[in-house]
């Protein structure tokens, strides 16, 4: 069994394409898009992509705006202030990537999943409000509460001495509002969702994931197997191996992959 990793540009987005060589040109191969975290890059999630590829998935790992191959010379605080621009750009680019891959005959429309880590998971939650073609999703230490998290980021920026004009704050909050999944739970429509979060996370507050899960339990009463939340004690802002393996099991179960040798 050979797994290939190719650096490709898809819809003008630098990406890694990870898949078994025997499945590379098979349209029926279940496909997963993997969004990385803030200050990270596509290569940093290759270990997860490799394990998914072993199970018969095709995985695309794009570089987010201002990250990886797209990083530009700028001060770190400027990228901090571009956090939501990065996320909204990734959401838009996701559909552009899907369209181009579909034209190339590399996608099976009913076998598309999305996974994200931290900022990437926040991106994933926003994408769920826009794209019903996402069949299942996984969040590693992300949050669906866009507005709540945005206010928290603004408070953190102010404590660091980064002043954001009130007009810019209002403009940002207006732009992210349509992507706040916490305020439009009906957009999930029972789609399979797995969430993982470490209870000692000091970057993305763990209580937000627990709260979101509790809100969703009512929504998923008819399909309880489509919703799962895993928390780990004494784990900070770092994805555990337990979480990785569970996510792979989740995709195997909900993207209906057929394992190929």
Top keywords for this entry?
disordered C terminus, single chain, eight-stranded mixed β-sheet, Rossmann fold, 8 helices, globular, 19% strand, alpha/beta, 261 residues
Provide a descriptive summary of the structure in words.
With 261 residues, the protein is α/β, with parallel strands linked by helices. It has a single domain (3-254), classed as 3-Layer(aba) Sandwich (Rossmann fold). The chain is 38% helix and 19% strand. The protein contains 8 helices and 8 strands, in the order βββαβααβαβααβαβα. The chain has helices at residues 46-54, 76-81, 83-103, 119-128, 146-159, 166-176, 206-219, 241-254, and strands spanning 3-10, 13-20, 31-35, 58-62, 112-117, 136-140, 193-198, 227-232. It has an 8-stranded mixed sheet with strand order 1-2-4-3-5-6-7-8, with helices on both faces. Helix 3 (83-103) crosses helix 4. The N and C termini lie close together (7 Å). Mean pLDDT is 92; it is low at 257-261.
Structural class: alpha/beta
CATH superfamily: Alpha/Beta hydrolase fold, catalytic domain
Distance between the termini: 7 Å
In spatial order, strands of the major sheet run 1-2-4-3-5-6-7-8
């Amino acid at each position: 069994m050979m797994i290939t990793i190719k650096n490709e540009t898809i819809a003008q987005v630098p990406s890694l394409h990870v898949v078994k060589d025997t499945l590379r040109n098979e349209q029926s191969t279940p496909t997963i898009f993997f969004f990385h975290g803030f200050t990270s890059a596509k290569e940093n999630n290759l270990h997860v992509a490799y394990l998914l590829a072993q199970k018969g998935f095709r995985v695309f790992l794009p570089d987010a705006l201002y990250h990886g191959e797209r990083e530009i010379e700028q001060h770190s605080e400027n990228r901090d202030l571009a956090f939501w621009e990065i996320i909204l750009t990734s959401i838009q680019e996701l559909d552009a990537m899907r369209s181009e891959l579909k034209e190339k005959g590399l996608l099976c429309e009913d076998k598309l999943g999305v996974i994200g880590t931290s900022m990437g998971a926040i991106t994933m939650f926003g994408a769920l409000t826009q794209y019903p073609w996402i069949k299942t999703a996984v969040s590693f230490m992300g949050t669906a509460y866009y507005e709540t998290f945005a206010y928290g980021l603004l408070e953190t920026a102010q404590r660091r001495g980064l002043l954001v004009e009130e007009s810019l704050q209002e403009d940002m909050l207006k732009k992210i509002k349509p992507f706040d999944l916490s305020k439009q739970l009906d957009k999930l429509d029972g789609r399979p969702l797995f969430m993982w979060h470490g209870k000692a996370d000091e970057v993305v507050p763990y209580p937000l994931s627990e709260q979101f899960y509790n809100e969703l339990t009512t929504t998923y009463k008819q399909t309880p197997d489509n919703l799962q939340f895993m928390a780990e004690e004494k784990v900070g802002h770092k994805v555990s191996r337990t979480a990785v393996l569970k996510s792979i099991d989740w995709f195997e179960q909900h993207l209906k992959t057929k394992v190929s040798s």
